[in-house]
Structures are given as structure tokens and as C-alpha cells.
Amino acid sequence: xxxxxxxxxxxxxxxxxxxxxxxxxxxxxxxxxxxxxxxxxxxxxxxxxxxxxxxxxxxxxxxxxxxxxxxxxxxxxxxxxxxxxxxxxxxxxxxxxxxxxxxxxxxxxxxxxxxxxxxxxxxxxxxxxxxxxxxxxxxxxxxxxxxxxxxxxxxxxxxxxxxxxxxxxxxxxxxxxxxxxxxxxxxxxxxxxxxxxxxxxxxxxxxxxxxxxxxxxxxxxxxxxxxxxxxxxxxxxxxxxxxxxxxxxxxxxxxxxxxxxxxxxxxxxxxxxxxxxxxxxxxxxxxxxxxxxxxxxxxxxxxxxxxxxxxxxxxxxxxxxxxxxxxxxxxxxxxxxxxxxxxxxxxxxxxxxxxxxxxxxxxxxxxxxxxxxxxxxxxxxxxxxxxxxxxxxxxxxxxxxxxxxxxxxxxxxxxxxxxxxxxxxxxxxxxxxxxxxxxxxxxxxxxxxxxxxxxxxxxxxxxx
Amino acid sequence: xxxxxxxxxxxxxxxxxxxxxxxxxxxxxxxxxxxxxxxxxxxxxxxxxxxxxxxxxxxxxxxxxxxxxxxxxxxxxxxxxxxxxxxxxxx
Lengths: 464, 91
What we know:
The structure holds 2 protein chains of 2 kinds.
Chain A: E1 6-11, H1 16-28, E2 31-34, E3 43-44, H2 49-54, E4 58-59, E5 61-66, E6 69-75, E7 77-78, H3 79-86, E8 98-99, E9 102-103, H4 109-119, E10 127-130, H5 136-142, H6 156-163, E11 173-177, E12 182-185, H7 186-196, H8 203-213, H9 220-225, E13 231-237, H10 239-243, H11 258-274, E14 296-298, H12 309-312, E15 319-325, E16 328-332, H13 339-351, E17 362-368, H14 370-379, H15 383-393, E18 395-397, E19 420-422, E20 429-433, E21 441-449, E22 458-461
Helix pairs in contact in A: 4-6, 6-7, 7-8, 7-11, 8-11, 13-15
Chain B: E1 2-5, E2 29-34, H1 40-53, E3 57-62, H2 72-81, E4 84-88
Parallel strand pairs in B: 2-3, 2-4
Organism (chain B): Geodermatophilus siccatus
Region (Disordered) (chain B): 1-20
Domain UGSC-like (chain B): 3-91
């Protein structure tokens, strides 16, 4: 709107400083807009559009306007500043020299998202108006935007609120998302994160997860398209995990923690909605696994025998690691009290990953629980030591692996050449630490086709 | 009225007309693409035999891994040299 030339003021009746300067404003003949009482002055800004567009933070604000443009501004009451701005002398003779103003309603935390959504121009996503008779949750199901569970409707207000969780520009491209290879902006990630149920502080972790999952070596297109079970598993390291409320303890791989649940889900919704990866279309999984709704947890770094996973992968501090995981398989060992025995149990359970006769074909992630971890910690075994032990234990005799051996057709074609083969390719077994204090159980998250022919785990920094 | 933001890529894919299906394969060039799944070669070897017997020129191609999309150069080569392509998708 065009401002009238001369003096323009924005006030609210609820502000004592504004009522104090009322006679001064009337005496100056200023054009005055009021935020909370349409009848106090001639101008009605109860919709707060003018206040928002002028960037009013304090009332009263007095502006000088020339040729429709603001040329000067003072906030609160200060006789000296008001006289300087207006060029008038002896203003408000009965008033104190100065009096601070009050907060503008246009920066009230309960109003600011709505105003930014209505009058700001920061969001590029197409706006979809829902009909009055549409149930908003059903409307989002109908448009094919959910994973089968209800989502939080991504209103502009909610998306703007979520975007406050990062300093990154909403227009910045985070990644090119398979399978449709769509350039995905921070804003699009935020839209999907709102739908997943994220809070603003979760957004940086989601952004890092999207970045990592779309790295070429992670092979997200193939991971999605495969008939295999797998989908991205997100492991979070660093102080950010606790700060945003993630769970690395009791039931770390299970339900009930908002940050774990929604960060993993947001990544999956980005793949679905931005990348166009939908089950039955490009996603051809025979069975899938429940982790394809969400699978995200924090590593339990305290009392861990191991350095943080991301740190061991060259990224100390706040970071996510994505792994192509295919569901959780328990490892029970309630009797081992020395690391050699426990490592043998791990190896025996890891051998069956995908199939006991298939070596170097599928990666895995071993999630060591605190009670199992204690055995390694007390023995001074770090990750490298445990991996070396497992590597030795998982050299499989070729004779047991060939097709037909053990009465099973599955296996390697004849003529392997070597006498034994490792179960895992170098780097194909990840080890993490998570879980509640009690329970002599660990977990194997089976992986997918590994290495250069499949998916390589990827670690990325979490940036603010 | 409630407004939500579109969570999709808002992509407008270019639509391309499918080429007309050839009436017969005799004298044409058919590409056989092995996506590197186990035993995909078994079915493609047999197909090659049958196609050659029908007077078809056959070219063989192979993706480096079934787990990743075919490299651009490979797709380009197939498009340049073949009139028809048959892909062995499964084990």
C-alpha cells in the first residue's frame, strides 16, 4: 500500500507509551494506524499487514514519509528524537523525556508465522487450497502424499516455523533426489519434515540425512527399486542427538521417541514425495520391512567401548550416517563374559546375514548393546579390534558355500578358486553402540547389496 | 479456507510418444541388456539363439551392476545402435 507523505505512526492501545503520546500524535496531525483497536485512530491495522510490511518491532513507531518512501523512523517516545524527526519544537510538554515502547503485535510469536505466510514472499512451493468440505487429513491421503499413516498438514505457517530450525536459505538445493532426480530445496525438505511431525530443531538432522542418502555411492535409486527388504537407516552422532531429544537408550530402535521417529520418516517422505519413489511403482520390494516407515536412532556415545561411528568414519562431531538396512535380527548371548566368546556369538549370528552360504554379498550393521559393550570396554577392545576379530571368525570355507552344499541349491557357482572367503567385504560391517542399560542382547541390521555394485554407507556433517 | 504446501517435486515431466511397435524383427537390430543379475545370461543366451535363427541382428550389452541405473553412455550406445531392446530384469 502507498503510505501518505508526512508523518505516519503505528500504535496499539494496550501500550501505555502509545496512550501517553496520543495527544502528541493528534497535535502533529500524523496518519496513525492502530494494531488492536480499529476505532482509536483513523488507520486500522488490526490485520497487522502494514505493521508486518513496515517491519515494526516496537510501538509506538513514528515514521517520516516522503514521496511514498520512508526517510526516518523513531521507536518509543523520546522528545529529542521526535522533535528531530518532525522538526517541531516543544512536543508533549507534560511528558517525561523518554519512555520505551512496547512490543509490536506483528512480532508476537503467536502471530508471526501467520503473518509471514500471508504477507511474506519466502516460500516457493505451490499452494494447494483445500475445499471447505474436505477433511484435511483425508485430503493429504487422497493426494498420495503420505506413507500410509496420517501426516501433519504442511501449512505455510508450519513450514515457516520449521525453517527457523536452520540458517540455510530455503531455496538452497540440498540434494538431487532419486528416482526422479529432482533438485530438492531446504524448503521442500521442510514441507515433508512438517508432515513427518518434526520440530524445527530436527530439521538440520533431516537435511544431513537427505544429503547423505542422495550421495551417489549410497545408490538410493537401486535401494528403492530393489525387490530386497532394505531402506535407509539413519544413525546420528554428536551433541546434536541429545540436544534435539533423540533416543540412544531404552528401545533405541523402537517406537516412542519423536525425534527418532520423525527424522527417519521425514527422509522417507522426501524420497516418496520429492523423488517420486512410491511402493508398487519404482519401489518393487517383495516384502519391505517396517523400518521403511522410519529407522533412525542415535548412537549411545557415553560408556561406549567404541569411538563415535561418524568420528571413526572421518566426521567427528554432529553427523549422520546412512546405511541401507533391511530390518533387525536379534543376537542373544547371556553367558559370554569375555570378548572372545562374545565375538564368536556375534560372528555365528552374522554369518546367516541374508544367507549363511552367501559371502561378500550383503553388508550388515551390528548394534552392540551396553551390557555387551561393557564386556569389550572392560577388555579394552575398540571397534577396530572387534572388527578384526570378527573378520577372522567370518572366513568361510568355500566348500560350505558352493551350490548344493548342505543340501541347499543356493550358494556360489563351482570353481570359486579360494579355500575360504570372507563373509563381509572390507568396510561392509558397521559397528555401533545403542540400547538400554539392561539386556545381554545386541542386534544385527542386515544390509543390502554391498560396495561398488550396491550401496556404500555415507556419513555427512549436520550443519545448523 | 485451509492452504497446504505441495510436498512433491512439482515436476512436469516431458511426455514422449512411444515409437510404433515393429511388425517383425527380421533384419532389425535388437539389443539384449543384461542387468548383471545372476543367471540373466541364461535367458539372454537362449533369446539370442532364437532371434538369430529368425534373421535378427543381435547386440549384447551389460550393466556394471543391477543395483544402480545404467550409465548414461551405455543408454546412449543402445539408443544409437538398436531399434529394439530387451532387458533381462530378474534372476
